[in-house]
Amino acid sequence: MSDTHSESVAFVRDTFIPEQPAPSSATGVVKWLQDNLFPTWLNGLLTVVSIFVIYKLLASTMPWMLNGLWNTESLAACREVLDGTTGACFSVITERWNQLLFGFKYPQEEYWRPLLAFGLMFVALAPVLFFDLPRKLLIVTALFPFAAYWLIWGGAIYTPLLALAGFVVGYFVYAAFVKGSFATGFFGGIAAALVVWIIGGMLIPEGANDTAMLKAVPSRDLGGFMLNMMLGLTCVSLSVPLGIALALGRQSDLPLIKIICVVFIEFVRGVPLITLLFVANVMLAYFFPPGSGVDLFLRVVIMITMFSAAYIAEVIRGGLAALPKGQYEAADSLGLDYPQAMRLIILPQALKISIPGIVNVAVGLFKDTTLVSVISMFDLVGMIRGPILASTDWNGVYWELFMFASVLFFVVCYGISQYSQWLERRLATDHR
Amino acid sequence: MKKTVFLGALTVAGLAAGVAAAGTLDDVKARGKLNCGVTTGLVGFAAPDANGEWNGFDVAVCRAVAAAVLGDPTAVEFVPTTGKTRFTALASGEIDMLARNTTWTFSRDVDLKFTFTGVNYYDGQGFLAPKALGVSSAKELDGATVCIQTGTTTELNLADFFRANNISYQPVPIETNAEAIQQYTAGACDVYTTDASGLAASRATFEAPGDHVLLPEIVSKEPLGPLVRHGDDEWADTVRWTLNALITAEELGVTSANIGEMSAAAGNNPEINRLLGTEGNLGEMLGLPADWAAKAIMASGNYGEIFEKNIGESTPIGLARGLNAQWTNGGLLYSPPFR
Q: How confident is residue A293, by pLDDT bands cut at 50, 70 and 90?
């Protein structure tokens, strides 16, 4: 065809024009600025206003931050050194960091124990959170609760060993009977574990705690951010399985189970967490004879777990309801029984849908652990509001302490949120 | 049938609890530790230091009782309580005594079934005002804005005071002491009112404490003291007379400096001899060793020394003795005689 036109067209270019750089308005910083900051005059105006606001914020906070003091004795000493200029008094953090992290009564020479438990926590969580890792690591996860308990509370090693033995025996009984029926295996396992615990509890010698390898630390001596982490981790990991059970129970065809689950969920969701905490601290003390009460930490864990389990149950119920009915029917038509259908078909899909909701509850729960400060437990906020602000040295230092607390909480919560986003991408099997 | 058994078990449990609660003194001796309820932290009155050791004005009372009963001022398990949990902790037997700047009122004594064993600090509601405001008396505060914590008795006292003096005010309700201080220093209110000891402690944290004054009017009575459960008189006596011993020691000039010498042998003053157990058998009557009071005073000094060390004028809190001076100096501290 080109031959046809060769005479009617005046000029046909037969070489390439040499490459030239893009015009300055379409590349580099200028283009980026134009596209992102000043695309229209309205956006430009907003940009200018934002820059002004950011400048104002930094101008008022940066001198305070940068001029901060890190090694004075007290607030009065800080003011003396600053002598009228603005500046933060971060010395409170350098002096009391150990109290903020571990509480004021945890023995200082034993700090390595919670730190070791903290390190082990990452090893134990890794195979649960990242399922590409070798499955053998799950052994560490299974052993972690007992090891962490022993490290943090210390005392006789019999207690965690006995707890572990109960679970092991329970598991073997479960494994032996589960082929026959899930219910026999499940309840048989629980019964076997209880038998081991009760018999073993009688065998532990009196006063074993006094001669223990690790010095025993009572629950009352735990505190600081360590307490928040412990409450958060324990309650989240306990409330997810409990929440799944409640969500399934609520959909059950057996009226009794259904009613129990509905009443539990609705009752717990209808009561503020702080009320439950007061019940744990104040009311339960009346029910036990003096001196023989259940440990306060355990009481609080039970209450927070109940609370978050009810919320997680509702989140998971949303996930279950979002699955098409065809999935349930498909499972039935394959001849799977109820536990198999749930485990292999329904729950993997429902839980995937529920991830954002569960993470939302987990983050909220972690922050709610600071509420224990009102029942005189010295968590991070309790430490700040109680002992530290009440010391004659540091009375009046608010910003620095609460900033420290928010940094700690932000790091953890942001980490959880980033993980959940990664998990959602990783599990996305649909085509987009 | 089953119900009867259950009720029977409950009764037995209740009786057992009642019996256990009746002999607090024996319980403490058997345990070797005194469980003492304190605040979760109040400047000067009770707070743990950087090493986790509890210190303060209320803490000293706990230590004195422990020293009197067990001979060891460190044999105390401090149980931190909040304003909301303190009474249940005491009533349920979790703590043996409560020394937590608690106001002695009729309803707490009678209705809540506690026994107050004395007063270790006479407090009262006061006013904090900037010097720049130029007032010298609370009666000149007509039309002032007042920062006040909601839901406390201070709110009612304030209303009573202004009504009785026929002047008006504008309340600025706030939730916590920390918030009140922020509001006050930012100028959101002209005056801040709460217990005078709290005002003095807060003023001590200001950048320029000298620019603020405590007005002379005290508009309420807040006698703060240690308390125990109702119905255990031996234990109440132990706590009451330990506190009285500290007060009497100041009155008689027994200090932590000279107590070693004074308690070694009987001196010329028979009341000091009776107090320190070198004469008579007062300790035996309480079921305690003869040197119980000497031990209590050795724990952290007499009342005056405890006051000076924790909240007195040499500390940043800088409270004057005022009502808390000995009766011989025009104050209200008046211990019954040791006889």
A: low
Minimum-distance CB partner of B49 among A391, A395, A398 = A391
Same-domain pairing of A176 and A284:
no
Q: Say what the pLDDT of residue A261 is.
A: 95
Q: Are residues A222 and A187 in the same domain?
A: no
Q: Is residue A83 in a domain?
A: no
pLDDT computed for residue B315 by the predictor: 87
Shortest alpha-carbon distance between residue B122 and chain A (Å) = 20
A218 touches chain B (CB under 8 A): no
Q: Would the CA dihedral through A320, A325, A326, A328 be positive or negative?
A: positive
Identify the pLDDT of residue B5: 41
The pLDDT value recorded for residue B282 is 92
Domain shared by A276 and A325, yes or no = yes
What DSSP state is assigned to residue B145? Answer: E
Q: How many domains does the structure of chain A reveal?
A: 3
Q: How far is B219 from chain A (nearest CA, A)?
A: 25
Q: Are A92 and A388 spatial neighbours (Cβ–Cβ below 8 Å)?
A: yes
What token pair was written down for B254?
């027994």
Q: What is the pLDDT confidence band of residue B1, given thresholds at 50, 70 and 90?
A: very low
* Residue B104 reports pLDDT greater than 80: yes
Closest-CA distance of chain B to residue A166, Å: 30
**Nearest-angstrom CA–CA distance, A414 and A420:** 10
Same domain, A222 and A209: no
Domains within chain B, CATH numbers bracketed: 28-122+224-329 (3.40.190.10), 125-220 (3.40.190.10)
Specify whether A36 is located in the same domain as A100.
no
Convert the pLDDT of each residue in A232-274 to its tens digit.
Answer: 999 999 999 999 999 999 998 999 999 999 999 999 999 999 9
Burial class of B254 by CB neighbour count within 10 A (0 to 12, 13 to 18, 19+): buried
Chain A neighbors of B52, CB-CB under 8 A: 99, 104-105
CB B195 within 8 A of CB B180: no
> Domain range holding A261?
91-106+218-426
**Sheet strand arrangement including B114-116:** B76-81, B34-39, B97-98, B227-229, B114-116
Q: Name the strand (E) or helix (H) holding A76.
A: helix A75-82
Any B CB within 8 A of A356 CB: no
Q: What is the pLDDT of residues B62-102, one digit of tens each?
A: 999 999 999 999 999 999 888 778 898 899 888 999 998 88
Give the CATH number for residue A301: 1.10.3720.10
Q: Is A76 on the interface with B (CB under 8 A)?
A: yes
Residue found by looking up tokens 């009963």 in the block: B69
Look at B88 and A378 and tell me if their CB atoms are within 8 Å: no
Rounded-to-integer distance, Cα B287 and Cα B226, Å: 20
Asked if residue A344 and residue A317 are part of one domain, the reply reads yes
Residue A250 shares a structural domain with residue A384:
yes
pLDDT of residue B203: 86
Q: Exposure of A175 by Cβ count < 10 A (0-12 exposed, 13-18 middle, 19+ buried)?
A: exposed
ipTM confidence score:
0.78
Q: What's the pLDDT score for residue B18? A: 45
B191-195/B144-149 β-pairing? parallel
Does B19 have pLDDT greater than 50? no
Partner residue facing B47 (CB), from A75, A376, A390: A390
Global pTM exceeds 0.90: no
Do A168 and A238 sit in the same domain of this protein?
Answer: no
Which whole-number Å values give the CA distances from A251 to A45, A418, B32, in the listed order?
55, 32, 55
Candidates A385, A387, A392; nearest CB to B44: A392
B95 alpha-carbon distance from chain centroid: 16
CB B297 within 8 A of CB B277: no
pLDDT-derived band at B151 (thresholds 50, 70, 90) equals low
Mean pLDDT of A404-422: 93
